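Lab notebook page, bench 4
Experiment: in silico fold of construct C2
Operator: M.H.
Input chain length: 588 residues
Purpose: comparison with the prior construct
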Amino acid sequence: MVPGGLFRHPAVFVLAATLAGGFATHALADPVVGSTNVATADPTVPRPPGQPCVVTLFTNVTFDDFNARPYSYAPPTSCSGAWSKVVLEADFSVTAGRQYDRTATLWLGGVNLYFGTTQEPSATVSPAWHVERDLTDYAALLRSAGQGQAIIGNLVDSTYTGVIHGTARLLFYPASARARAADAPDAVYALGSDPIGSTATLNTSTDKLARTLTLPTNVERAYLDVFTQSQSGDEFWYTCVPDAYAAETDECGGGNFREAEISIDGQPAGVAPVYPWVYTGGIDPYMWRPTPGVQTLNFLPYRVDLTPFAGQLSDGKPHEVAVQVAGANGYFAATAALLIYRDAQAKKVTGAITRNTLTGQAPTPTIGNTLVTDSSGNLSGDITTRIDRHFVIEGYANTSHGRITSTVTQNTGFDDTQTFTINSSTYRQQTAQRTWTDTTSQSRLGNFLTAERHEHFNYPFSLDYNQQLASDGSTSAASTVHQGYRQHDELRLLGLTVYGASVDNTIDTQDALVFDASGNLTSHNGQQSAQAFVFHDTLGSCYRASLATQAGAVTSTNSGKGCPDGTNRVSWFAHPDGSPDSSLLPGR
């Protein structure tokens, strides 16, 4: 047997399950052509075979104020053994009328179970939507009873009339001969001080979401799931410019680079890119009816590998784990959960960090400017923001398997160009942005490379906002958005590639608002959008779905086109939405 239990690696079980035909069949119905209800091409969480035990968190709860809705949780008595998968399902709706998009979160024992926003209604459409999250890696939390709460702050009055309702439940799939028991983390710790759960407000780059923890003395691996959601003045951070150019471009200041910085005891420990989510009231609300932006209703956390710090975290002393947002400018809502794997054969793990080139690397972008104002006062030109960093963090842990050296190597970058055309009749801002990370996590026993994972993330985003003033004083504001989420993972064991997977989720949408000379919205036109979602892996999974909309209704759908036999087939252990999966990390 390979030291470190690598022959127990889930990828081996994945292969066996695939050969046995372990493909998921759970899926929601395809959107109906002509429907004005929420419609996305996103997949649901694949399910293992067998009947789940269901624990209801709350049913048809009304959200019409800013108070949290508490609930009690107890694990399912009829599924008390090992679980192969745990899935959160939630259904929400909002009554027809007028209402803002609202941030929605679900919590248990301080740990986030769901993070997203809500769909805005219209005067005639009461949208309803379904979200799911794979919570298998949070099984240790779900083994014990606890208190939770749902938070959807909502103002309802004579103007804002939309009332939100929601139902949520947890589905526990028992392990069986056809569905292996999940090799989940041994403990889950919430960052933040709220014992039931809430986000932290990070107004500036120096504000921290932090918790000081004394962890078990046999930590073998550690990961941090991070959410950083832009709010208020930071909601449209991707359009902001450096303060020096804010006045002449009539834009928000503070620049447009944002990045989550992770630290342990004040020492840099990793970074997490910030996804440019656009909410259903963002830019032009009609663009997101009936198809919202990528992940708008259901955010994904970004998982940071902190395993090089395992030896340090096992020393029995208190350690502060913290998250900050570089560039935060009022404000980001943040939450994070620390996932710990313990060495079951050792009471004490020792070790240390041996290399950390992230220390001293301040996230300072390079700013370029070609703005020119002519003699008539017409402004044109670009503002560019660039940053590209490379770092290595390495540490060792003396475990029951021997000395394991863990190395995280990451390239991370941000590239943005804001092009302005401003004159007496035109205000046009064109944003072209890309955020990316390339990360390699390695595990070595002595000089022997045992496991290696490569991850690539790419978040393309572009916005063309073109406002035109007519001679009668009316204005039109045409907006076009391209948004994407791309991820590719590859796992190698003992030098051999055993698994690879790719996710590509994109949306293109446009609309034009028309205002009279007094600034009142009189109409909109040209709304259309197209979303496409593609997933495939090296074990035969294939998921392809797309849809198009026009004037607020679905005009076409495609499901399975391009997959073998024209059918979507996804292994129940796959993560087609791109959500993190610890079973595909080195050392499992």
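Observations: The mean pLDDT is 93. The longest helix spans residues 10-19.
Next step: discuss at group meeting.
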